[in-house]
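Predict structure. Input: Transcription antitermination protein NusB, 126 residues.
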Amino acid sequence: MNRHKAREKALQILFQLDINELDPIKAMEDIAETTAIDSFLETVVKGVSTYKQELDDTINTTLENWSIDRIASVEKTILRIATYEIKYLEDIPVGVSINEAIELANSYGDEKSGKFVNGVLSKIIS
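Output follows.
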């Protein structure tokens, strides 16, 4: 599985965790019935789950006239994944994390999601 596909699967798993508050290991086991779990996918899911509050705090500090609770779950999950990569995965260039997040937002969010995600992530790295 390439990293783009792993990010898509991570988005699906983490979205479910956010909505249903499942255990990350259980959620990955459920998806493993239909998809092989690679190390990058596992790293992202476990990392975002572990650092969720810290990631939310980082995202929240960049929001103007918004709070993390007002962000749609899809965009919030994408922002968490990208913020986790930026803060904790040094082997991934920041630009790659941001571009991947924008692609996911354009695919899974609404017509403004990509610009919103780009704006928030740009503030995080500055």
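The helical segments are 3-20, 24-32, 39-50, 52-62, 73-88, 94-108, 113-125.
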